[in-house]
Amino acid sequence: MQNEGNKVFINHLKQKFSGYIVIFSLFVRQIQSDAIVVTFDTIISTTSSQFLGITLDSGLIQHKWDKLNLSSPKVLTLAKGLSPYTNTYLRLGGTAADFCTFTLSDVKVTQQHVGKLEGHDLLYEFLRNKHKNFTEFYMTARTWDEIHEFVQKAKLDLIFDLNVLLRTNHNHWNSSNAELLLKYTQFKGYRMAGWELGNEPNSFHHLNSSINVTAESLGQAYFQLSQMLAKFPTIHGRIFTGPSTTQLNKKPTIRYFSDFLKTPGGGKVTSPNFHQYYVNGRTATVNDFTNSEILDSFEDELKTGNRVIQGMGEKRKLWLGETSSAYGGGAEGLSDAFVAAFMWLDKLGMAAKNNVNVVLRQSFYGGKYALLDATTVDPNPDYWLTLLYKQLVGNDVLNITSSSSSRDVRFYAHCSSERFPLGSVTLYGMNLLSDGVNVTFPQLDGQLKIYLLTAPNQDLKSRFVNLNGVTLKMTSDTSLPQLTPRSDTSPLYLPPFSYVFIVADGKTYSKACIH
Q: How far apart are CA 309 and CA 262, in angstroms?
């Protein structure tokens, strides 16, 4: 009797809620029919295993690192977090690099050591007028020691930008100070990832109208440096990058970039590079950071750089030697806020898709566009994005297709990082709209790992970011929080002004990712 009563009760519930079930089913079908469809297929590009790197500005040396304590457990924890599987490139350079001279001063050196270093004069005279905002300064051997101690502990690979404005009376590059640095580096047994010479040399006239280093002159200096580096095989490093021009969106810059690469010195460069920023930090608005047209403008520069390199019949791959959201040190309250993520994440996707080998983020610390806060050295929102990218995204880039004609919802797809099984796929993308959207991935079934990032209280200027509703913060000075996904299935709802990483690792989702 009891079983019979249960059956009657269950039938009663079915009848009562059948209407709701039908409505819910129609609702689900409507979501699926309205959803943006995203698919992926073959590998179209492969980046370096060290694709995402960071920078520090040489000016920090002059200013005693400001509030960045290189031996701080907190700073080391944050730096090491960016190297989960392989070391991360650290480029130490920038405008101040061309005002920096290495000196042995402040270091106790025995007579034997002086002999090994050939007793070079420590000060060099060079003829150029000083810019009002930049003065010559010295990097001591002690500071060079501190830098190498930091990169070794933090699992970073150092690329150092040498001073190209050390000139002779005939306006040729004076290489003697670089040679002194190389000899000291070899003597100490330090390991280098690579070298760079000069920063944005096509724009030196902005520093002073009397300063002019032509593409041909820069090429001569690079050839001179390449010959010198050949004498130091133990510290040479495999990276030799330049010409480090400004953006490839103006004909004079494109001509400088191209003319340099045609020189014998330019031919020695392993990694042709340029710098890129979207907007002027002094005038940028919050709407600029979510403007799909501004984001798309970046691709033309990438195509230009690739076209120049490929036009020479070469297989070298393009680098972004310095890049962030807004030039001029970043946009205050924006480049260090949640909204900066849209430019940063899209730049990574766009660069990887367009055959860029390495992207160096300006900066780890320093400026309004830094990954770390200038005062507290706490992580800014883009730090967490960078950390997620490092942990989840692999180096093989997949071709992706979207049913959306709007560029306000965009996605990229890669084979997953090495922490996931072969055949796993990681997708990442964003919703730049003020309305939520549904996105479906027909090739992905079962439970997916979802890392949804949103602004606390929907405040795009927030200095924090929520991962699946939880605000990300360091748990202590020596530990980072677990970046925990939630499980969900396709279709996926993307809230307004949000971005997401999706990992599908339950089975082989891409045969292209098995190799």
A: 10
- Give pTM, 2 decimals: 0.90
Please identify which of the residues 179, 196, 200, 301 carries the catalytic annotation: 200
* Of 179, 196, 301, 322, catalytic: 322
Mean pLDDT of the chain: 90
Based on the structure, what is the number of domains in the chain? 2
Confidence of residue 15 (pLDDT cuts 50, 70, 90): low
d(C-alpha 54, C-alpha 385), whole Å: 13
pLDDT(118) > 90: no
Judgement on whether residues 377 and 417 belong to the same structural domain of the protein? no
Structural domain that includes position 450: 36-45+398-513
Q: Taking phi first (over 0 means left), then psi (-120 to 50 degrees means alpha), and beta for anything else, what does residue 300 get? A: alpha
Is 314 part of the annotated catalytic residue set? no
Q: Which of 210, 207, 189, 190 is nearest to 198 (CA)?
A: 207
**Could you tell me the CA-to-CA distances from 423 to 47, 206, 361, 418, 428 in Å, in that order?**
18, 50, 29, 11, 17
Residue 326 lies in a domain: yes
Can you tell me the distance from the alpha carbon of 194 to that of 321, in angstroms, rounded to the nearest whole number?
Answer: 12
* Burial environment of residue 122 by CB neighbours within 10 A (0 to 12, 13 to 18, 19 or more): middle
Q: Determine how many CB atoms are found less than 10 A away from the CB of residue 437.
A: 21
Task: Determine the Cα–Cα distance for residues 62 and 376; give it in Å rounded to an integer.
Answer: 20
Q: Omega of the bond prior to 233 within 30 degrees of 0, cis?
A: no
Q: Residue 41's domain is classified under what CATH number?
A: 2.60.40.1180
Nearest CA-CA partner of 450 in 400, 495, 383, 398: 495
d(CA 105, CA 160): 20
Question: Do residue 378 and residue 288 come from a single domain?
Answer: yes
Handedness of CA 487, 492, 493, 497 (dihedral sign): positive
Q: Is-catalytic flag, 200?
A: yes
